[in-house]
Amino acid sequence: MNHVNLENLQKTRRELEAGQIPATKAFEVEGRWLLQGPGQFQATLAYPGGQITLVSDQSPTSGGEGTAPNPVQYCVFAMLACYATTFVTLAAQEGVEIQDLRVRGASVANLRVMFGLEEGPVVEQAWIELRVKSPAPPEVLERLRQRADQKCPAAYSLQHQVPFTSRVERM
């Protein structure tokens, strides 16, 4: 339903309940800085059906050449894709038909903070807007939105302080 394989979801849930698969999963990516273009950073992401190499580049005003999407655009894309997936999956699990879904969103960055001209939060706001075509009543869609706010990993990360660490080591 809604282009969501409910049978696979149910199988995974049963395996989680039975302790047959781990309860946590790290989604790890490794990339590298490009010392010459096009682009500034690249990573290859593997998935069950293959792999894709993504490249990012800053705009010229931010020190890049503008030859690829910038890293924040990828973050916003990931946020929207994650949220849409969560919303539609929750709908499918409840038998709610989604006939069309359009998702818009943004991450609002404070450039003065990024360029060291003032102190404050680097990201001031993030938002997502859904346009849904469905026979479901508005209150059902609103309930699904509220559940997606709670269940989407990207939305959760934006709403809660998630433990973060970084480190540097010499090659």
If you had to describe this structure to a student in words, what would you say it looks like?
- By secondary structure, the protein is of the alpha+beta class.
- It has a domain at 70-171: GMP Synthetase, Chain A, domain 3, CATH 3.30.300.
- Helix content is 35%, strand content 22%.
- The protein contains five helices and five strands; from the N terminus they run αβββαβαβαα.
- The protein has helices at residues 6-17, 71-93, 111-114, 138-151, 153-159, and strands at 31-33, 41-47, 50-56, 100-109, 123-133.
- Strands 1-2-3 form a three-stranded antiparallel β-sheet, with no helix packed on it. A two-stranded antiparallel ribbon has the order 4-5.
- β1 (31-33) and β2 form a beta hairpin.
- α2 packs across α4.
- The protein starts with 5 loop residues before the first helix and ends in a 12-residue tail after the last helix.
- The model has no long low-confidence stretch (mean pLDDT 97).
Strand content: 15-25%
Uncertain stretches of 5 or more adjacent residues: none
Annotated CATH architecture of the domain at 70-171? 2-Layer Sandwich
The percentage helix is: 25-40%
Q: Could you say what the CATH topology of the domain at 70-171 is called?
A: GMP Synthetase, Chain A, domain 3
The side-by-side strand order for the widest beta sheet comes to 1-2-3
Rounded to the nearest angstrom, the radius of gyration is: 19 Å
Shape: globular
Mean pLDDT: 97
DSSP E strands, number = 5
